[in-house]
Design brief:
Length: about 100
């Protein structure tokens, strides 16, 4: 029976070795995780860069809207002028037919 008891008993040195083996590579894994974690400063930098891009895009959309608005206004004015000319021509033709 003494032999069985010795097999099941763990020495402090054996236990320390088991724990050490369990922690092998944990430091490396923590380093990998730390590299992947974004710092507050880096996050602020990324946010500021993104905010600048959004502001630039907003400005460009406003410019495109203004250009389209001007084209629409010019087109409407041009069409109004053409309709006015056509109305005058129709009145003149109608007046000619009545006079003839």
């Amino acid at each position: 029976m003494l032999g069985k008891e010795n097999k099941n008993k763990i020495t402090l040195e054996g236990l320390a070795n088991m724990i050490a083996r369990g922690f092998e590579g944990v430091d490396k894994r923590f380093e990998d995780i730390e590299r992947k974690i974004v710092t507050k400063d880096e996050l602020n930098f990324r946010f500021n860069a993104l905010e600048k891009k959004v502001d630039k895009l907003d400005y460009q959309v406003d410019e495109a809207y203004d250009i389209l608005k001007r084209f629409e206004e010019n087109d409407i004015l041009n069409l109004q002028k053409r309709v006015h000319i056509l109305e005058k021509a129709v009145r003149a033709l109608a007046a000619n037919r009545t006079n003839n």
